[in-house]
Amino acid sequence: MSILLAVLLAYAYSPGDSSWNLVTLGDIPERAILFAELAAKDGGRSTLDLATMLEIAGRFAEAENCYTLALNSTTDPALSEWLENRISGTRNLDTLVILSIELNNMSDGDIRDISVEIPLPESHPPYQTVQRLTGIFIAERNILVQHIELLPAGSTIVLPLILHVTQQPYNFRPLPALYPTLSGSVSLEDISSLARAITIPETQTGPGPCLEIAYILQDRAAAAGLELQIIGGLLRNGRDDLLFHAWNLIPRTGMPIDVTLFQADSLRGIGHCPTDIIPLWSYEYTDGHEVSVFYPQQNEDLDVSIEASFADPELIEGLLNLFPICMMTN
Q: Looking at residue 198, what DSSP letter applies?
């Protein structure tokens, strides 16, 4: 589990644990916000409750002000980190992201005819646009492909992909009570019950269980007749740290369902699109992999990794001088 999700699990507001019965999964009534405003005058944690309600209600500028007020009055490092992420999540995002795919030939022999595949980055309207700025990879239907003729023994190659991401915080509320399936419909409560029934492994280090959980929800939803996609993207943790993450999406509506987050924070876990969570692509065409590598000499030792970071302007300028610019909007 990522550090960001661990902090969310520790500090996120959850209506299931609250005595505020006016708050529902589907919507945030105006009277609930008014009640929260009155409670916030008592100080303490009530300010966070109010900020969360404002965020989920789509009143992002007001939520940012409340989160900032809480940040200025706390001395808890973990809570401060969570508040900084929430502040980031309520602000518009306009940035360059660089994905770096690194191949390291660990063997004693050369490796030839390597094909590198990653999912095709795509926009998520109405709240996000993704543009590819370089032509290093070639689009082939729903994936990007790059061919490497030769990677000598002991050598390393880095393949960059630069994305321009513009995104605004968005919320799908009020959420529909029913979702159409091939044989009828599934209720919002049915979906939330499926999400609550999944057991999340307790882990604080290493890769999180998000992709495995997304597959489990997809299978269980399919048994109920509801089609779900598995999409991937990035979690913003602090100002500079980007972590890969996976969750589900209802294709017909574009509405996200994040089981990992939902069980701790059911308000944010369904239908919420803050800018500290950046969707990038569907895993449908790459079997759940951010990067796949194929080559004939499978007995050779090839180490593969992918990293994401906000792009340094000087680095971007150098890369764009080396590689052809190919502006493409999905």
A: S
Mean pLDDT of 139-159: 93
Nearest 10 degrees: Cα torsion 58, 208, 254, 129: 80
**Which phi and psi (to 5°) does residue 255 adopt?**
-80, 130
Sign of the CA dihedral with 320 first, then 148, 98, and 255 last: positive
- How far is the first Cα of the chain from the last one, in angstroms, to the nearest whole number? 31
**Helices and strands of the chain, counted as H and E runs:** 10, 17
Average pLDDT of 180-188? 87
Beta-bridge mates of residue 231: 247, 282
Helices (H), the chain: 3-11, 30-40, 46-56, 60-72, 77-89, 188-196, 210-223, 259-262, 266-269, 313-322
pLDDT in tens, 273-298: 999 999 999 999 998 899 999 998 76
Instruction: Kindly state the average pLDDT of the residues 115-122.
Output: 96
**What letter would DSSP give residue 296?**
S
Q: Give CA–CA dist 247/237, Å, rounded.
A: 17
297 or 131, higher pLDDT: 131
Q: Are 185 and 145 in contact (CB under 8 A)?
A: no
321 is written with which tokens?
């001088």
What pLDDT score was predicted for residue 19? Answer: 33
Beta strand 111-119 with 302-310 is unpaired
User: Is the Cα torsion angle 136, 140, 142, 147 positive or negative in sign?
Assistant: negative
pLDDT band at 73 (very low <50, low <70, confident <90, very high): confident
pTM given for the model = 0.83
SS3 324: coil
